[in-house]
């Protein structure tokens, strides 16, 4: 009889993981706070798409409303896609669209003070009791960075960055900014390693705050690039690049005249990449690879659809020069 109940318990736990059911705060031995139903160490992590995992990691509103500020900060620390904060160019609002705990905390007047207080508490805890998943260093970096960003309420929309311009091949002006480096090499190395582990991608070049995905794909792939570009549309509207394909990623590209080094433009201006894995066969678009810069993270070789959830890959256009 005891063995029968043990089997039932194991089946219930397995069902919890596979269905992505929510766990109430406090039902975990890891931190004493909210427990996500899946993480990188789960074994099943790479069995799901990024969008499926993103939905599994979403905390329902009722649970969020019952969580204390401390619970929320711990849930932010344990969020498996925490590194996406950098992939979104350190845009806290965009990150909060996918990290439910961050979104809930931002809605509270106590947000800045709680982030500072509990982030410091968590970082100190990691010094004496490191995380079992080996992510103590990168989570500490990211928590402190997020806390500092939320506290900078007086910063203007441009971030105090110097405006400049670059030119498309056909001579159109494109507005860019020229930010300075704000992270240490150790920070970038830890964050890039976390992205590699979380997404199963390959690192090409260490992270940098000086240029982003649009700039890398459309302006310059050089490591000396110092231009952050928010909108590359001029490259596609002035004839510098010709449209070869626009649609979903399940289609075959065989008849569209696509080639390596064509540019990929993700829906709603969310991402740009360089097509580097196309062989001309009839396989679905999603099965090929691309190279791109992820926010202030590094440059990665990745599957076309194996990108942060905020990079809208439901519709992608391909452009050829």
- End-to-end distance: 70 Å
Shape by Cα distribution? globular
> Average pLDDT across residues?
88
Task: Note the run of SSEs as H and E.
Answer: HHHHHHHHHEEHEHEHEEEEEE
Largest sheet, in brief, is: 7 strands, antiparallel
Strand order of the largest sheet: 3-9-8-7-6-10-5
**Class by SSE composition:** alpha+beta
Structural write-up:
The protein has twelve helices and ten strands. It is an alpha+beta fold and 321 residues long. The chain has a seven-stranded antiparallel sheet with strand order 3-9-8-7-6-10-5, with helices on both faces. Helix 4 (69-78) packs antiparallel against helix 7 (100-106) and helix 9 (136-151) crosses helix 10 (185-199). The longest helix has 18 residues, at 2-19. The protein is globular, with a radius of gyration of 21 Å. The N and C termini lie far apart (70 Å).
SSE layout:
Blueprint: H1 2-19, H2 50-56, H3 61-66, H4 69-78, H5 84-87, H6 92-96, H7 100-106, H8 111-128, H9 136-151, E1 163-167, E2 173-177, H10 185-199, E3 202-205, H11 213-219, E4 228-229, H12 233-237, E5 242-247, E6 263-266, E7 271-275, E8 289-293, E9 299-303, E10 316-320
Antiparallel strand pairs: 1-2, 2-4, 3-9, 5-10, 6-7, 6-10, 7-8, 8-9
Helix pairs in contact: 4-7, 4-8, 8-9, 9-10
